[in-house]
Specification:
The complex is a heterodimer of chains A (about 140) and B (about 90). By secondary structure, chain A is an alpha+beta fold. In chain A, about 40% of the residues lie in helices and about 20% in strands. Chain A has a 4-stranded antiparallel β-sheet with strand order 2-1-4-3. In chain A, a hairpin with a 3-residue loop joins β3 and β4. In chain A, α1 packs antiparallel against α2. The longest helix of chain A is centred in the middle third of the chain and has 13 residues. The model of chain B has no long low-confidence stretch (mean pLDDT about 85). Chain B has a 4-stranded antiparallel β-sheet with strand order 2-1-4-3. By secondary structure, chain B is α+β, with helices and mostly antiparallel strands. The chains are: A alpha+beta (about 140), B alpha+beta (about 90). At the A-B interface, β2 and α3 of A face α2 and β3 of B.
């Protein structure tokens, strides 16, 4: 075990860092120096991470950490491409009624693939309360 | 690689960590048997619905279910209350 990993595990044991922070630090020290951003190594990102952190001092806040394999995201998106054309028109009209300007006919899984690959780190603060972080690793 | 186990772990400060494995491979066996039984019906429905444009999507979706199951490996879900420090982790591997 490398010295950095040992130090990270010692900090986790001493409760100086949380499990999530330890996981990210371990992932960071496992990457090669010229790996660049933590999002994509030479083989590309493998997981989509969604972290929800409650506002500080919020006793009812839920902490959520989801790790979704990108293959699962791609497989799920493929289902959308199986929708027949006549159903897509119905879906488009329903979306328009709800005020969502999204056209299923122009939906391209390759565009979403490109978005996932280039997704570095996205943090969204919801109403000054929770923080939502979305990134690929 | 399809996930063979589903691990449910509950960690709470001051308490012993609880872990329970769920044998997913048994679920896949049952699901596989069910999908095999449904295959002739799906093929028949696909042929009958082909003129209306539903046949091909139906067949594609049926075979795509296997790919979806295989992509589940590595799915991790952590849920915890910040104040209580209790974390429930569900992992498919």
């Amino acid at each position: 075990m490398s010295e950095e990993k040992r130090k990270i595990l010692e900090m986790l044991a001493d409760k100086k860092i949380s499990v999530d922070e330890a996981e990210r630090l371990l992932a960071a020290v496992s990457e090669p120096p010229e790996g660049g951003a933590a999002t994509a190594g030479a083989r590309g990102p493998k997981y989509l991470r969604v972290l929800v952190e409650p506002a500080p001092g919020d006793p009812d806040g839920d902490r959520v950490n989801v790790r979704v394999p990108l293959n699962l995201v791609r497989a799920g998106l493929k289902f959308a491409s199986f929708i027949p054309a006549q159903v897509r028109d119905k879906v488009n009209s329903e979306l328009k009624e709800k005020g969502v300007p999204f056209d299923m006919n122009h939906f391209n899984p390759q565009d979403v693939e490109a978005l996932l690959v280039h997704l570095n780190d996205l943090t969204v603060e919801v109403d000054g309360k929770e923080k939502v972080r979305v990134f690929c690793e | 690689m399809i996930p063979l186990w589903l691990w449910i772990r509950v960690e709470e400060p001051g308490k012993k960590r609880f872990a329970m494995p769920v044998p997913l491979f048994l679920v896949w066996l049952l699901l596989g048997a069910l999908l095999l039984l449904l295959l002739p019906l799906v093929l028949l429905c696909g042929l009958l619905l082909w003129p209306w444009g539903w046949g091909k999507p139906l067949l594609q979706m049926y075979f795509h279910v296997f790919g979806l199951i295989g992509a589940l490996s590595g799915l991790t879900l952590d849920i915890g209350r910040s104040e209580q420090g209790k974390i429930t982790r569900i992992v498919m591997k």
